[in-house]
Specification:
two-stranded antiparallel ribbon; alpha+beta; DUF3013; Rossmann fold; elongated
Length: 158
């Protein structure tokens, strides 16, 4: 059996832990990064005009919101942290501790579920100053890291 790596563990645990949402795991070998993208949807019943972060207006009946977190090798990865909900470092070829990867997925599930609820509340709010944004709290994420399995899952070989 092949040795478990960061990508195999993430793929399996994401599918097990977050089966009800649209997810994509993208391993960018050139950038030494792993992007976990997700989508949530909400019905815009009143087809109210909504401006996105770039100022693009939409009156679509179904609003789609996509965001992502990025796992990076601080020595080799290049990225703009503004493009991601969270950027989490790992330790190069050594990889990342299994309990940390578990906490990433566990907290991501909470963030997505809360984001889905907040999106629906936002769409139901007809005030002009209503704002929707996803939130990732590093302190909450770190508090979810259990001391149980701190063995490393290595960065995969290609």
């Amino acid at each position: 059996m092949a040795k478990e790596t960061m990508v195999t563990y993430l793929d399996n645990y994401l599918n097990k832990k977050i089966p009800d949402y649209e997810l994509a795991l993208d391993w960018n070998t050139r950038n030494h990064s792993f992007e976990i993208a997700f989508r949530i949807y909400g019905e815009n019943k009143g087809q109210v005009e909504i401006d996105d972060v770039d100022g693009v207006a939409s009156e679509e009946e179904i609003i789609e919101f996509e965001d992502a977190i990025l796992l990076v090798d601080p020595e080799k990865s290049t990225y703009d942290s503004e493009d991601f909900l969270a950027v989490i470092p790992y330790e190069g070829k050594k990889g990342m501790k299994k309990n940390e990867l578990t906490a990433v997925v566990d907290y991501l599930k909470e963030v997505i579920e809360e984001g889905q609820s907040d999106l629906l509340d936002f769409l139901a709010d007809d005030s002009e100053d209503a704002i929707f944004e996803m939130k990732w709290d590093d302190a909450v994420f770190k508090a979810l890291i259990k001391p149980t399995d701190s063995s490393y899952l290595p960065y995969p070989s290609y």
